[in-house]
Amino acid sequence: MTPVQTTRLLPRTYRPLFAHADFRRLLPALAASDLGDGMSVVAVAWLAIEIAPPGQSGMLLGAALAAYALPGAAGALLFGRWLRRLHPGRLLAADSRIRAVLLGCVPLAWAAGVLHPVLYVALLAGSSVLHAWGNAGRYSLLAQILPPDRRLAANALVSSSVSASIVVGPALAGFLAAVIAPAWLIGLDALSFAVLAVQVGRLRGAAAGADGKDGAGTEVTEGAEDAKGRDDREDGRDGAGATAAPVDADRSAAGLRLLRKQPELLGVLALTWFFNFLYGPAEVALPLHVTEDLKAGAGLLGLYWTLFGAGAVLGGLAAGALGRFPLWPVTLGIVAGWGLALVPFGLGAPAAVTLACFTLGGLIYGPFTALSYTLFQERTPAAALTSVLAARSAALLTAGPVGTALGGPLIALLGPRQVLAASGIATVALAVVGAAVRVRARARGRRRVRTPVPL
Which residues pair with 213 in a beta bridge? Predict the structure, then answer.
């Protein structure tokens, strides 16, 4: 079947994208890197368990998972002064090259017998230091190589690739881990980023910011972009009004100053931070629960994450319907529901039951991010929204990795099954505290309204 015939089978909205040479080159490479990261969800944890010294698997597992994410949070803030001026294609290529080289060193060191736990954590940490910038470069590059009326469809396809990788990647890793060592799975992830770096370099629109041309090679001033699109990119926003540049320290500081004047938004931010923080230990405990408590292999771990991802995709798609309900109660209900889904782990429930609970937990968890953003959008003045959301991102980038790092010592003290249950119980308690604070705040607001103003 020819490319033209294949394009005709697509929905009308997406056909122009696949007629665009740059996008047609970029999408498969992005999908490959997403799939590689999806496999690494299982492979990074599994390799940490294999190379950990006796009795220290929980500690190394927590350190490895934190190293795979936390340096990206630091890089988003520390390198803003220098990197925010670079063209998005260069940002994406730089992140891809770093990940390809450092992740590629993992299987080489393992094959040579020199993959010490400290070296493993260092390689993972180095590979992630620019990943927040690379992710921002991905969506900014789409805005530059495509005209404004095609960006929404392109963002939908690229976002769907990320969601699908959560479902397919862990399952594929679980299957392949029975055939090859997890170190080679990380090598496949490195290879996918090498392919992405090469493809970004081949894009005709990769120099769009320098030569004044769009991805098709036509002059921008000839109508490929309207005046608003040009102005949007000059101030760091795409045509839809979303921030294209990553978070930087100056913008985050301004946002935090605004948040101090918005107690309700500070409450939402605190709830989200602790929710992500309490999720961290569960991410560390699950692989050890599979190996130590269930005496199973990587295939079962992959199945847990696949079912969770499938539930999260469905839950995310349902977020629009939830907009008809009061957002605060629904958000607190999601926090409590995820916590309750973890409690059966601590009761010694069989794998079939906990798999069902993890699927339900993903379904419940899926809409949380969209609803949290909606609360910020509704309560924040339009002129301050960008700064406030930048501060939100800077704060939340630390929550999950800090919780993940804490998971290792907790598992050494309590055991993986008990940590899963404790994470669930603490999350339910968080929802109860959040509800109590919300009720108290509303009562105070009513008392202020009823208090007569002195003349």
Answer: 219
